[in-house]
C-alpha cells in the first residue's frame, strides 16, 4: 500500500513538474531558514545548562538608584565575599573571583621574553571556584593548586598557546608574568568546558596573589565601592529561597555600610541573578561572550515561522487549484473501492515526499547560508549532523509538521470529491468551487500581508538607522581619531611628549588631551549636590575630562561663559544645557558662577555652559553632564582632529603613519592603535544594522516565495480560462483589456492585504521605536511605498503568464469547439 502511494506520487510529480518545482523551492526556503534559526536559537538556549545543580547557582549583582534612575552592576563590593562566608546562612558554596586581562609575559631564559597581548579571559580565583564549577583536571587539583600566592592554573588550550612545544607535565612549574609585575608559577592544568558556556576563562591566578597586591585590589575593604570585575557566585542550599538570601545580603550591607542622610535618594541593593539568565540579560556584564536578547531570538523564530508558513500556503493554494485536474482520478479510485482515508494517505504521502525533497535541498544549502551570514552567526556555532543528533531530530519533526500543515487541508478537500460529479466533469462546480476559491483568496491575502509587513518594517528600521547616523548629535564626528595611551605608563610625562610630537605633524589640525570620547557605550558619573540657599538638588552627573581644546576638537557649542582651562582642575567645570534645566535655570547664563558639590571637600564652579550632545546611542536620552580637566586621574586619551583631505586622498594615511612613528618613539614595544570617532558612533548601532540586514533578507525571501506561488496560480488560472480568453479576443478584446481582466482580482487582493496589515504594522513599528529616546517619524510614505512595491512586484510576476495568455492565438484555444 505504502509503496503504491509513493509510486503514484512520483507519477504525479512527472506530470506536474512546474508546480512540483515551485512547491519544493518555496518549502526549501522556509525550511532552510527554520533550520538556520533553529541552530542559532538552540546554540543560545543551551548555554551553561550542563552545570551540576545549575538551577541553584546564582550570581550576586548590585542594583542602584540615583534619584529614581536605575543603574545596574554585575559586580559586588570587595568585602562581601568574606561577609557571606561568615554571616549568611543557607548557602552551600560561594565562589568569589575577580576578572582582569592585558599583556601576559612568558620568560624564555636567555632569549627575549614572549609577549601575549589582549588576554582577557583571566581571573583571580581559589578552590571555591572549582568546587562550584566542575572542570576536568589534567594536572594538579582544586584542593591544592590555588592555595598559595603566585600560583596559576591554565586551561589546556592556553597551556598549548603559551608553551606549544611542551607536554602537560613540563608546563607545571613554568613562570608566567601578569600585569607586567605579578609573577606566577603554573601549578595545574584543566580541560576547558566543551559545552556552550559564558565561562570562557583560561588563566586562573590564585586569589591569595591578589590580596597581597593592594594596587590591583584597592577596594577589598570598602563596602561602598562596587566594581564589575569583582564577581561572586553562590549555590543555594536545598530548600533555601532566593528572597531569604537577598534579605540577608542587604541586611549585611546595611550593617557595614549604613545609609547616610546626605545620600538621600540613592539606594544600593544586592540581588541574585540566576545562572540561566546571564546569557540573556543585558543589564549586567557578561565576560567575553556577547549577551543575546530573548526578544531577538523570538524575532528570529517569528521570521522562520512566517517563511515556512508562506511555503505551506503556496503548496495549499497550488494543490487545491490543481484539484480539478485529478478529479477523474479521484472518482475512479472511489469507484474501485478506495476509501477517503486511503485517499488522504495518498495525498499526505505526496506532500511528505515533496517536504523530504525540500529538506534535502535545504540541508545542501546550509553551508552556503552559514558562509553568507557568517557575520550574524555566533562564533561558536557549528553544524555536524553526525555529532549533533538533535539536528536530525529537528528535521524529522519539521518534515512531519510541514507535511501535515501543507497537505492536510488539500487532502481533505480532494478526497471529498463525489464520484458521480467528477465523472460528469462537475468536480469543481457549485459550493465546492466557491469554498475552495475563497480559501485560496484568504491564503493569498495572508501571504501578501506577511510580505508587506516585512517591507514596512525593513523600510522603517533603515530609516531610523539612517536618522541615527546622520543626525546632528551635538558634536563633530568626521575626521577625528583618538588614541589611548598606556594606562600603566610609569612616566606620566610621556603623554605630553607624544602630544607635542603629534601637534607638529602637518596633517593634524588640532589636538586635545583628556578622557573618554563624547559618545560611547560607557561613561563615568558621580552623585553631586547643588544648593541655592533655599533647597538642595541631588542628582547623578555624568563626567568627562578634557583640556581647553577638547570642545574645540569636537566642535561642541559653548552657549554661555568661557571654556575650561587646565587651572580649573580643582574648581571649574562646564555643564550641559540639560543639567541647567534640571537645576531650574531658565537660561544658560543664570547657571554661571554657581557651585556644584562633588563631595564634602570639593566644590566645582560652573564657568561655562555647553550645548547638549548625545553621550551614547539614541536609545538613551541626553543626561546631565559636565566636563572638567581631571588631568590627575583621567587624562590618558589623545583626541586628534585631522585636516581635510586634498585631491590625492592620501593625507590622512600619511598623517596616521606619522602619528604611529611618533608613538613608536615614545612608547617602544607597545602596539599602536587608533580609532576613527565616526566608526565608534556607527558601532553603537551594530545590533540595529544587523537586524536591518536580516529583515531585508527576510523581506526579499517573503516576496520571492509569494511571487513564486503567485506565478503558479497565474499559470493555473490562465490555463483554466484559455477558451474564455480566446472568445474575448475573437469578440474584439485587446491585449490590455485581457491583462487587466486577469490582473483585477490580484490587485484587489493586494489592496485588501494592505488595508488589513497597515494598522498592525504601524503598531509593531511604534512599539519598536519606543526603544529610542530620540527617533525619526513614522512617515505615511513608508506604508504607501510598501503597498505600491508589493503591487508592482506581484503584477510584474503575474504578467509573465497573463501577457503570454493574452497574446496567444485564439484559434488554437477554440479549434476544439
Automatic annotation (TrEMBL):
Domain MacB-like periplasmic core: 20-251
Cellular localization per UniProt: Cell membrane
Annotated TM spans: 21-41, 297-318, 352-373, 393-417, 438-461, 694-717, 738-765, 777-796
Ranges of residues in domain ABC3 transporter permease C-terminal: 302-416, 700-809
GO cellular component: plasma membrane
Keyword Cell inner membrane: no
Tree of life domain: Bacteria
Record keywords, A-Z: Cell membrane, Membrane, Transmembrane, Transmembrane helix
Signal keyword on record: no
Membrane topology of the entry: Multi-pass membrane protein
GO MF term (any one): transmembrane transporter activity
InterPro entries in the cross-refs: ABC3_permease_C, MacB_PCD, Macrolide_Exporter_MacB
PANTHER family attached to this UniProt entry: ABC-TYPE MACROLIDE FAMILY EXPORT SYSTEM PERMEASE COMPONENT 2, MEMBRANE COMPONENT OF TRANSPORTER-RELATED
The protein, known as: Duplicated orphan permease
Highest classification ranks of the organism: Bacteria, Pseudomonadati, Bacteroidota, Sphingobacteriia, Sphingobacteriales
Amino acid at each position: 500500500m505504502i509503496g503504491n502511494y509513493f509510486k503514484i506520487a512520483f507519477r504525479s510529480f512527472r506530470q506536474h513538474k512546474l508546480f512540483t518545482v515551485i512547491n519544493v523551492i518555496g518549502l526549501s526556503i522556509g525550511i532552510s531558514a527554520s533550520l538556520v534559526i533553529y541552530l542559532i536559537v538552540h546554540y543560545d538556549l543551551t548555554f551553561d545548562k550542563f552545570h551540576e545543580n545549575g538551577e541553584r547557582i546564582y550570581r550576586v549583582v548590585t542594583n542602584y538608584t540615583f534619584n529614581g534612575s536605575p543603574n545596574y552592576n554585575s559586580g559586588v563590593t570587595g568585602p562581601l565575599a568574606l561577609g557571606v562566608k561568615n554571616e549568611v546562612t543557607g548557602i552551600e558554596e560561594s565562589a568569589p573571583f575577580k576578572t582582569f586581562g592585558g599583556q601576559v609575559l612568558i620568560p624564555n631564559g636567555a632569549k627575549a621574553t614572549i609577549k601575549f597581548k589582549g588576554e582577557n579571559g583571566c581571573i583571580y580565583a581559589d578552590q571555591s571556584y572549582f568546587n562550584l564549577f566542575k572542570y576536568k583536571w589534567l594536572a594538579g587539583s582544586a584542593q591544592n593548586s590555588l592555595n598559595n600566592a603566585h600560583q596559576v592554573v591554565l586551561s589546556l588550550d592556553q597551556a598549548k598557546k603559551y608553551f606549544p612545544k611542551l607536554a602537560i607535565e613540563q608546563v607545571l612549574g613554568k613562570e608566567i608574568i601578569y600585569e607586567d609585575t605579578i609573577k606566577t608559577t603554573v601549578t595545574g592544568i584543566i580541560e576547558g568546558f566543551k559545552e556552550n558556556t559564558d565561562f570562557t576563562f583560561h588563566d586562573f591566578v590564585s586569589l591569595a596573589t591578589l590580596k597581597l597586591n593592594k594596587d590591583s585590589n584597592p577596594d577589598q575593604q570598602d563596602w561602598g565601592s562596587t566594581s564589575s570585575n569583582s564577581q561572586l557566585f553562590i549555590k543555594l542550599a536545598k530548600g533555601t529561597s532566593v528572597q531569604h538570601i537577598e534579605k540577608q545580603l542587604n541586611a549585611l550591607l546595611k550593617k557595614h555600610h549604613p545609609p547616610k542622610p546626605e545620600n538621600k535618594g540613592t539606594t544600593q541593593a544586592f540581588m541574585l541573578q540566576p545562572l540561566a539568565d546571564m546569557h540573556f540579560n543585558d543589564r549586567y556584564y557578561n565576560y567575553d561572550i556577547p549577551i543575546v536578547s530573548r526578544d531577538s531570538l523570538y524575532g528570529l523564530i517569528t521570521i522562520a515561522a512566517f517563511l515556512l508558513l508562506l511555503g505551506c500556503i503556496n503548496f495549499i493554494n497550488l494543490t487545491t487549484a490543481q484539484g480539478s485536474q485529478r478529479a477523474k482520478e479521484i472518482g475512479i479510485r472511489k469507484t474501485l473501492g478506495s476509501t477517503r482515508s486511503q485517499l488522504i494517505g495518498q495525498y499526505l504521502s505526496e506532500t511528505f515526499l515533496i517536504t523530504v525533497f525540500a529538506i534535502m535541498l535545504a540541508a545542501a544549502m546550509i553551508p552556503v547560508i552559514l558562509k553568507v551570514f557568517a557575520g550574524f552567526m555566533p562564533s561558536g556555532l557549528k553544524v555536524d549532523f553526525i555529532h549533533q543528533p538533535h539536528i536530525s531530530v529537528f528535521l524529522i519533526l519539521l518534515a512531519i509538521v510541514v507535511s501535515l500543515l501543507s497537505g492536510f487541508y488539500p487532502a481533505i478537500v480532494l478526497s471529498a470529491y463525489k464520484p458521480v460529479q467528477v465523472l460528469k466533469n462537475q468536480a469543481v462546480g457549485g459550493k465546492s468551487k466557491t469554498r475552495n476559491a475563497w480559501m485560496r483568496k484568504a491564503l493569498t491575502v495572508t501571504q501578501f500581508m506577511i510580505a508587506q509587513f516585512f517591507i514596512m518594517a525593513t523600510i522603517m528600521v533603515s530609516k531610523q538607522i539612517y536618522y541615527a547616523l546622520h543626525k546632528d548629535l551635538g558634536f563633530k564626528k568626521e575626521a577625528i581619531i583618538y588614541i589611548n595611551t598606556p594606562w600603566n605608563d610609569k612616566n606620566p610625562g610621556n603623554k605630553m611628549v607624544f602630544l607635542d610630537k603629534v601637534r607638529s605633524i602637518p596633517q593634524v589640525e588640532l589636538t586635545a588631551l583628556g578622557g573618554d570620547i563624547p559618545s560611547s557605550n560607557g561613561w563615568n558619573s558621580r552623585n553631586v549636590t547643588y544648593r541655592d540657599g533655599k533647597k538642595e538638588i541631588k542628582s547623578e552627573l555624568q563626567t568627562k575630562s578634557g583640556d581647553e581644546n577638547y570642545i574645540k576638537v569636537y566642535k561642541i557649542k559653548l552657549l554661555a561663559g568661557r571654556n575650561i582651562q587646565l587651572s580649573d582642575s580643582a574648581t571649574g567645570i562646564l555643564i550641559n544645557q540639560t543639567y541647567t534645566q534640571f537645576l531650574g535655570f531658565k537660561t544658560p547664563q543664570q547657571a554661571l558662577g554657581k557651585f556644584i558639590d562633588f563631595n564634602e571637600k570639593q566644590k566645582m564652579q560652573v564657568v561655562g555652559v555647553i550645548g547638549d550632545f548625545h553621550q551614547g546611542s539614541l536609545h538613551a536620552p541626553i543626561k546631565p553632564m559636565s566636563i572638567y580637566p581631571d588631568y590627575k586621574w583621567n587624562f590618558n586619551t589623545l583626541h586628534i582632529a585631522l585636516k581635510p583631505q586634498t585631491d590625492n586622498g592620501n593625507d590622512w594615511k600619511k598623517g596616521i603613519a606619522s602619528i604611529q612613528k611618533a608613538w613608536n618613539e615614545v612608547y617602544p614595544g607597545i602596539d599602536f592603535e587608533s580609532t576613527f570617532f565616526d566608526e565608534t558612533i556607527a558601532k553603537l548601532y551594530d545590533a540595529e544594522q544587523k537586524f536591518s540586514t536580516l529583515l531585508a533578507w527576510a523581506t526579499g525571501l517573503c516576496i520571492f516565495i509569494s511571487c513564486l506561488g503567485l506565478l503558479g496560480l497565474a499559470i493555473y488560472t490562465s490555463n483554466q480560462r484559455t477558451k474564455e480568453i480566446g472568445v474575448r479576443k475573437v469578440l474584439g478584446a485587446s491585449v490590455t483589456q485581457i491583462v487587466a481582466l486577469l490582473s483585477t482580482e490580484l490587485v484587489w487582493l493586494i489592496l485588501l492585504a494592505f488595508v488589513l496589515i497597515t494598522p498592525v504594522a504601524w503598531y509593531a513599528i511604534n512599539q519598536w521605536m519606543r526603544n529610542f529616546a530620540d527617533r525619526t517619524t513614522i512617515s505615511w510614505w513608508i506604508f504607501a511605498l510598501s503597498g505600491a512595491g508589493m503591487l508592482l512586484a506581484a503584477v510584474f510576476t503575474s504578467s509573465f503568464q497573463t501577457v503570454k495568455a493574452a497574446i496567444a492565438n485564439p484559434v488554437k484555444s477554440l479549434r476544439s469547439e
